[in-house]
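User: Predict the full complex structure for these chains.
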Amino acid sequence: MLSIKNLHASVDDTPILHGIDLEVKAGEVHAIMGPNGSGKSTFANVLAGREQYRVTQGEVHYQGQDLLAMSPEDRARAGVFLAFQYPVEIPGVSNIYFLKAALNAIRKYRGLEELDAMDFISLVKEKVEMVKMDEALIYRSVNEGFSGGEKKRNEILQMMVLEPALAILDETDSGLDIDALKTVADGVNQLRSDSRAFIIVTHYQRLLHYIQPDYVHVLASGSIVKSGGPELALELEARGYGWLNAITAGAA
Amino acid sequence: MAAVNQHIDTLIKREYQAGFVTDVEADSVPPGLDEDIIRLISGRKQEPEFMLAWRLKAFRHWLTMQVPTWSSVHYPPIDYQSIVYYSAPKSRAEGLGSLAEVDPKLLETYKKLGIPLEEQEMLAGVAVDAVFDSVSVATTYKDKLAEHGIIFCSFSEAVQNHSDLVQQYLGSVVPHTDNFYASLNAAVFTDGSFVYVPKGVRCPMELSTYFRINALNTGQFERTLIIADEGSYVSYLEGCTAPMRDKNQLHAAVVELIAHKDAQIKYSTVQNWYPGDERGQGGIYNFVTKRGACRGANARISWTQVETGSAITWKYPSVILEGDNSVGEFYSVAMTNNYQQADTGTKMIHIGKNTRSTIISKGIAARHGQNAYRGLVKVLKSAEGARNYTQCDSLLMGDQCGAHTFPYIEVKNNTARVEHEATTSRIGEDQLFYCRQRGLSDEDAVTLIVNGFCKQVLNELPMEFAVEAQKLLGVSLEGAIG
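Assistant: Here is the predicted structure of the two-chain assembly.
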């Protein structure tokens, strides 16, 4: 589904990613872990097409298409979803209107009819219940005045309504209490299927108690320094990131 | 960031979509202004003596006045002697009995603007008094309104047929001495709309006027007078577009509203006059005086405006709250793109007891646009228990535009409560990226964000007008963000 080869990226002419290689197949869950400043968020944003992040080398193919040549909206319409680390507020635009505009833009791109209002509302209500969100929030302005936990639940709600093929969660677990964390994990687990892949970017191992990844990759100083199975996450939890410095130093 | 701004720029750029000129032979007077011209205008319109006397009084006063310089807008001096003060489509001279007699070219113009007059009567609930240049071309729905005793006609017609009402109310809210542009208007105004709603009558439809400036170098000076008698209600919509011109055109209108005891007037404007091109050439100078008076207890006047056009907008729709418990409201969206300048706001003058006013102002500036809110809340000694709430929000797009807020507050009664809130924000790269990551195009994202910003004001517009205004905001900003 996703094939990343030698990806280099810079922000404001500062190189952040130094040659990332990663293969993600449909049905897989990949966890990207690493210390602060290792380039995790840059990696997530580059895949989503954020313009401040400039790709300087390498290629990314998504479902056979050149992902880097696509606009952010076309990536979204083709099924790439980014759950934001800091979800953005849009005053005056109701959450449900935003969700409907997004869903219909994506459906249109795929040649599907717009969902009628009744079908849409029942779909949203069903998902709202699944993410245990206060229904009143769907009529409020997008993320405006939401608590940190509500914002993250809202991201998961959007993910569940839009049903992406590739979902990238950028530190969705940070700052969440245990209930919200479980909700996020439930959302991912419910969406897990043979046709869908996840990239879960996280600093901590705790989310991975609830979402069993197929692969764990450790990102340090803009490179993947170690890959393994779920056991790698446990090792990181036990030993921290410090021991990896030796590996990075050795590599350099 | 530079790339992002450039991107926003391309989004903002778009051709003015109502820019075309109708080729109609015009019946005009020579350029320039003196007492003879005023007599000529009054004569052509076969006005009663009191009108001519009033015009001349205004003109003589105007000669003593100076162009106001206190606002934040900048433009080269206007040569008032080069302006043509009267221009009517020729066919008017032959007299129009029905829509079928209207110059087909005029009707074509309105069709391009999406106002097919023949279809107006079939359209639900909107009566249109179309002003083409200075003379009303056609009035529809008049008969139906007459059944309720409502008068809705051109100002010229009102002067002929309802001169007692005109004489009683003309200049009673905006006197002929009020300000430079209002005095000029009083001297030379050629037409406009007149509405009278009798006691206890709720006007059964939205009244609507489309104004259009057409002939080159013709200043347009309309005058609108709306009177809501005791316990009545009327909602009036004003919409405007103009064809593309290289030369700036002056527009100095006056609107007077009078709401008696328990009456309510809702006045909504969507203004889309030619804003000038992206280098700042051309465009309308829109210097307008709009004021309403709540004469009796519990009267209510609401101004709602969506201003996306004109090179310069200079207007302050205001309410004089004389009656006890009367209410004044001002809801405004002003958008300036390219080199447009807007200096707009309101004045709320609290005189009666427990008078209340609400001011919601949303300013949007893109590219080189300059947007100023200027407002006065004045609470007189007599206004026991007066309340005001003011909210001024500005939205900036790109880094070359400007937003300015000038709130003036004068309170002479210590029981008054006056609140003022102001915010300035920027359409963020973050917001845009968030929308695009959810599948929205950048243009749709800008429209969504701007409409969200303006929601409190758009909610005040009648439904069909709100839809039009939302589209207009989107179109006016195509190509504008960062």
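The CA atoms of residues 48 and 75 of chain A lie 7 Å apart.
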